[in-house]
From TrEMBL, chain A:
Coiled coil: none
Gene giving rise to this polypeptide: LOC118899193
InterPro entries referenced in this protein's UniProt entry, alphabetically: FIBP (IPR008614)
UniProt name for this protein: Acidic fibroblast growth factor intracellular-binding protein isoform X1
Gene Ontology cellular component terms for the protein in this record: nucleus
Automatic annotation (TrEMBL), chain B:
Gene expressing this chain: C2CD5
Biased composition (Polar residues): 41-54
Comp. bias (Low complexity): 55-83
Span of domain C2CD5 C-terminal: 642-735
Organism: Balaenoptera musculus
Classification via Pfam families: YbjQ_2, YbjQ_3, YbjQ_4
Official protein name in the record: C2 domain-containing protein 5 isoform X19
Chain intervals for the UniProt region annotation (Disordered): 41-95, 404-434
Species classification: Eukaryota, Metazoa, Chordata, Craniata, Vertebrata
Length: 389, 765
């Protein structure tokens, strides 16, 4: 007796969250072969099945103890899993454009379940996103997914889904004007939190920030997303509220690209380190204000010129795309690492950065106060976030 | 024969004059057969001497046989044979009975002969229920001379209906309710089946006049509530078949049988103890491949045995559950190239009016063998344990009634000496009683061969549903009244391929049994999130699309109920149902027939509240910008409920929008690419549901009731990467309003509620 066909269709589509997670995680629903080695003992639980006739997904469900809870057999579980997998496969093309899921007629799904389907489908693994963050979302990167899968332990299927999600979101919002987060939220119906994460991913992918270097490994996706949000808010065209009056098709995307003019202007900050008098004055202002307040005052005093040079030079270099990409590498090299080697407490870093940016206002010979604020305001936030172990 | 001259297409004739009785379900037709008042049985069911038989091969069992077989449902339960009764009961009955009978008879004669396909009736409509009557006939389709003309088919059906009619008459009944007809075709052989429940109807309902009037009269008459329909319609001294009667356990006045099988739903006012459960009998029989007449003969020879075994199984399983009545009985016999399948589904209940069923006793044939004896006693213990467990599970605790009140049943002249015998059980209190008394007679299963052994084993393999689950194939589950509004209608299809080598009847039976059991288990598992819930209207359909393929299709609805209020008194339930029935009658039964032209525009579309209940996504709705948001981003698709039942729990149907009857054919030439047969059919059925919903929504409705999948024919050719499927579904499009919202609606727009009846009045005048 072999089962040729076995289906279950409900007027309201049944969604099992656990099975959905297994499906998203890329576990096979078909009779598997790998499960024997990966999930060892679970395979022969069903005495009647005898052979290792159980898919990865079913084996995992068995291990969750569902058979004991419900008194079901492995065959029932297999049938149930396959039903869900078929449903998810049919839903997948709709999930590629979530508004379609809301308006389709084939599957009657309660709104809360629809939200869950979408949110979970677009959720991603921290480990995976760190691997591709800042990389070009191209075919080339897609070819590397094999390695990423091996490295992270995430199934290739799941890697592909996550990568395709990034790429899909990127493609849709790439040409759009307006707030990046809003655009993503509107076209993918994601929660606010997830939409912000996607905005960061898109922003990084667009500007190709380098995040994979060894010295950046200690940073989490959250750190980068935080920086991305600050940069989007302050350093892009959309940030300054310069809604382009002329409908110029060549105009830069408002939220995705950094404000080129601003980057050009940053060269002007060089005077802060190039002019020796200004540098000395700046240093004395900062040192006077912080004397007695810093635990690492002497180290700060000794290092001030190096740190200041580092920060200003980073700004001055941002005119070149290559240097924009290395922004985070430079920041870590020029600021985070020196601080770390001197064991600066986080609070001291905050005090120093506040005083360092504020003191510039007292420099009479310096004319680019607004530019400095736009640069340092964001950078201060980023640096504080980047300063951890 | 006046048949054809009077009504050229008489086999499915709609009786419009009774629209107030018809109305609710789309699949409830009232068959109307012109009945020859002086039936000569020979013309219809004798051997090949009639002109018909010259053209067509027909296995139509001889009259005496078929009566016996069709009444075998009761026959089995009933103790020793007393010989065949005359069937012309009624003359010696009580004066009231006789009067009633006369009235009914005149009313029925006036209306000729009614077959009701309805399964639920207004309270008081059913006076007595006699039992299941059925008839089958094997025909050869290629013997029809002009297949385009319906004459031959009409004659076939007329023959079967006559037989049904005579069975009903033998049971002292004038009408057949819960009547249905079906066919199973394989190549050129066709099995025609009909079954129904013989009943005596209240003549007042059949006279001209409103239903309300009858209701009032019924209440005045003060008929025994909750047990009247169980009382035997036939004369106890002149019974049509051997029966084992006792005084009704409810009213103690009239006689009742010890077991009652019916094809109808449980009457709303019936007194039931505990809960009911789905009972299935499953059977396969191998058959040699043959052609034409040889094939028909082979099938004909197998049929009586199958019917017998199906009934035996049903009876055994019923006893195992500790219950005494079956409702909604549907026996399906399917014919394939090399086998016959029988699947009977029914809902078992414990009727308070009927006696407590006896247990099941196993008797071995060779009592000398020690180990065998041990095995027998072990099995006996298992069976007794199962019965005890089931009684607990289904909350069957009938009150103890002393013997004196019940009175002595009809004496039983002799014991039956067949596989099933009736014997007195010598329980402690009744040891002195005469054997022939047999109040709590046990069922004796004699396991004298391997077949019987298998049967006993299969009895015990049926796993009860997990706790919190109930199932029935009737509209509602007796004993559960507090449904919530959470419903989930579903269709499940399974096809298994039998390994063709060395198939025996036993192996086949086991495969089929496993198939059905696993299917049920799967359903319980999938719907576990709805616990506590009940699968209602579980409808199994079996077909044999190919040599080694068995296809089972199940459609049912799972309804969650509130466990805390699960126990309500039957009285309030009856009252409630009475109320429901009366409001139904007043407001719903006279729905306007000309909907499309006038009613719809004048009547507001579905009350907006009902449609918008479950719309709109919580996901970032507030974040949508009006600039490029999709046109209906804020109004997602309205929910359309589907249910095979005639009602929606917790809601009131405010308007019927008409019958939906849709045929779909889908073909693919890229089967593998679409996920194989499962993927193909899964997508297709999902789309069928979607199309039905869309159709209903387009009519302005928000639900389909009485939904049924009439056909699901699936064929595949994997080698060619092809598959085809035909699906026929039907139901009634309706507008419903939640009861919680009803008050709001009625206060806001009082016109909405009275409008249907007004329009209805216009139509009827």
């Amino acid at each position: 007796m072999t089962s040729e066909l076995d289906i279950f269709v409900g007027n309201t589509t049944l969604i099992d969250e656990d099975v959905y997670r297994l499906w998203l995680d890329g576990y096979s629903g078909l009779w598997g072969t790998v499960c024997g080695c990966r999930f060892g003992g679970a395979v022969v639980l069903d005495g009647r099945a005898g052979r290792a006739r159980m898919s990865d997904a079913v084996a995992l469900r068995v291990r969750s103890g569902i058979l004991e809870q419900t008194g079901a057999t492995a065959a029932v579980l297999q049938s149930d899993t396959m039903d869900h997998y078929r449903t998810f496969q049919m839903l997948e093309r709709l999930l590629h454009a979530p508004p379609k899921l809301l308006h389709q007629l084939i599957f009657q799904i309660p709104p809360s379940r629809q939200a869950l389907l979408i949110e979970r489908y677009y959720a991603f693994d921290e480990a995976f996103v760190r691997e591709v963050l800042g990389k070009k979302l191209s075919k080339g990167t897609k070819k590397d997914l094999d390695d990423i899968s091996t490295k992270t332990g995430i199934t290739l299927k799941s890697c592909r889904r996550q990568f395709d999600n990034f790429k899909r979101v990127f493609k849709v919002v790439e040409e759009m004007r307006g707030s990046l987060v809003d655009n993503i939220q509107q076209h993918f119906l994601l929660s606010d939190r997830l939409a912000r994460d996607y905005a960061a991913i898109v922003f990084f992918a667009n500007n190709r920030f380098e995040t994979g270097k060894k010295k950046l490994q200690y940073l989490s996706f959250g750190d980068f997303a935080f920086c991305a949000e600050l940069m989007i808010q302050n350093w892009t065209l959309g940030a300054v509220g310069e809604a382009p009056t002329d409908p110029d098709p060549q105009a830069d995307d408002m939220d995705m690209d950094l404000d080129k003019e601003f980057l050009q202007d940053l060269k002007e900050l060089k005077v802060l380190v190039a002019d020796k008098d200004l540098l000395d004055l700046h240093k004395s202002l900062v040192c006077t204000a912080l004397r007695g307040k810093l635990g690492v005052f002497s180290e700060m005093e000794a290092n001030f010129k190096n740190l200041s040079r580092g920060l200003v030079n980073v700004a001055a270099k941002l005119t070149h795309n290559k240097d924009v990409r290395d922004l985070f590498v430079d920041l870590v090299e020029k600021f985070v690492e020196p601080c770390r080697s001197d064991h600066w407490p986080l609070n001291d870093v905050r005090l120093f950065l506040n005083q360092y940016s504020a003191s510039v206002h007292s420099l009479d010979g310096f004319r680019h106060q607004a530019l400095w604020d736009r640069y340092m305001g964001t950078l201060r936030g980023c640096l504080l976030r980047l300063c951890h172990d | 024969m006046p048949l054809d001259s009077q009504q050229p297409n008489s086999h499915c004739y709609w009786l419009t004059t009774y629209s107030e009785l018809l109305c609710v379900c789309s699949h409830s037709h009232l068959y109307w057969i012109p009945f020859n008042e002086d039936p000569n049985p020979n013309t219809h069911s004798s051997g090949p001497s009639t002109p018909l038989k010259n053209q067509t091969y027909s296995f139509s069992p001889s009259k005496s046989y078929s009566r016996q077989s069709s009444s075998s449902d009761t026959d089995l339960s009933l103790t020793p044979k007393t010989g065949m009764g005359s069937g012309s009961a009624g003359k010696e009955g009580g004066p009231f009975k006789a009067l009633l009978r006369q009235q009914t008879q005149s009313a029925l004669e006036q209306r000729e002969f009614p077959f009701f396909t309805l399964t639920a009736f207004p309270p008081g409509f059913l006076v007595h229920v006699g039992g299941v009557v059925s008839a089958r006939s094997v025909k050869l389709l290629d013997r029809i001379h002009n297949p385009d003309e319906p004459e031959t088919r009409d004659a076939w059906w007329a023959e079967i209906r006559q037989e049904i009619k005579s069975h009903a008459k033998a049971l002292g009944c004038h009408a057949v309710v819960g009547y249905s007809e079906s066919t199973s075709i394989c190549e050129e052989v066709c099995i025609l089946s009909a079954s129904g429940t013989a009943a005596v109807l209240n003549p007042r309902f059949l006279q001209d006049g409103t239903v309300e009037g009858c209701l009032e009269q019924r209440l005045e008459e003060n008929l025994p509530a909750g047990c009247g329909f169980c009382h035997i319609p036939y004369d106890e001294l002149n019974m049509p078949f051997p029966a084992h009667l006792t005084y009704c356990y409810n009213c103690r006045k009239q006689k009742v049988p010890d077991v009652l099988f019916t094809t109808i739903d449980l009457p709303m006012d019936a007194a039931v103890i505990g809960k009911g459960c789905l009972i299935q009998a499953r059977l396969c029989r191998l058959k040699k491949k043959a052609q034409a007449e040889a094939n028909a003969t082979a099938i004909s020879n197998l049929l009586p045995f199958m019917e017998y075994e199906v009934h035996t199984q049903l009876m055994n399983k019923l006893k195992l559950k500790g219950m005494n009545a079956l409702f909604g009985l549907r026996i399906q016999i399917s014919v394939g190239e090399n086998m016959l399948m029988g699947l009977a589904s029914a809902t078992g209940v414990y009727l308070a009016a009927l006696p407590t069923p006896g247990g099941i006793q196993i008797a071995g044939k060779t009592p000398n063998d020690g180990s065998y004896e041990q095995h027998i006693s072990h099995m006996q213990k298992k069976i007794n344990d199962t019965i005890a467990k089931n009684k607990e599970l289904y909350e069957i605790n009938p009150p103890e009634i002393s013997e004196e009140i019940i009175g002595s049943p009809i004496p039983e002249p002799r014991q039956r000496s067949r596989l099933l015998r009736s014997q007195s059980e010598s329980s402690d209190e009744v040891t002195e009683l005469d054997l022939s008394h047999g109040k709590k007679d046990a069922f004796v299963l004699e396991i004298d061969d391997t077949d019987a052994m298998e049967d006993v084993h299969s009895l015990l393999t049926d796993v009860p549903p997990p706790s919190g689950f109930y199932s029935c194939n009737t509209e509602i589950m007796p004993g559960i009244n507090n449904w919530t509004s959470e419903i989930q209608m579903f269709t499940s299809v399974r096809v298994i391929r039998l390994s063709s080598l060395n198939l025996t009847n036993q192996a086949l039976n086991k495969n089929f049994n496993d198939l059905c059991e696993n299917l049920l288990k799967s359903l319980y598992f999938k719907l576990r999130s709805m616990i506590p819930c009940c699968l209602c209207h579980v409808n199994f359909t079996v077909s044999l699309p190919e040599d080694e393929l068995i296809q089972v299709t199940v459609t049912a609805v799972a309804i969650t109920f509130d466990k805390n209020q699960a126990l309500q008194t039957t009285k309030t339930h009856a009252e409630k149902s009475l109320q429901r029935a009366s409001t139904d009658n007043e407001e719903l039964l006279q729905f306007p027939l000309e909907l499309c032209s006038d009613a719809l525009p004048s009547h507001p579309f579905p009350p907006a509240k009902a449609v918008t209940v479950e719309k709109a996504s919580p996901v970032g709705e507030g974040n949508f910008r009006n600039r490029s948001s999709p046109p209906c981003a804020n109004s997602t698709v309205g929910v359309v409920k589907m249910t095979p039942l005639s009602f929606i729990p917790g809601a009131k149907i405010t308007k019927y929008l008409g019958i939906i009857n849709m045929f779909f054919i889908r073909e693919t030439t890229s089967l593998r690419e679409e996920g194989g047969v499962s993927g193909f059919l899964h997508a297709f059925i999902a789309e069928v549901f979607a199309m039905v919903r869309a159709h209903v929504a387009a009519l302005g409705g928000n639900a389909v009731v009485s939904y049924i999948m009439k056909q699901c024919v699936f064929m595949e050719n994997p080698n060619k990467n092809q598959a085809q499927c035909l699906i026929n579904v039907s139901g009634d499009a309706v507008v419903f309003v939640r009861e919680s919202e009803l008050e709001v609606v009625s206060t806001q727009q009082p016109a909405a509620n009275c409008q249907p009846s007004c329009t209805g009045g216009e139509v009827t005048t």
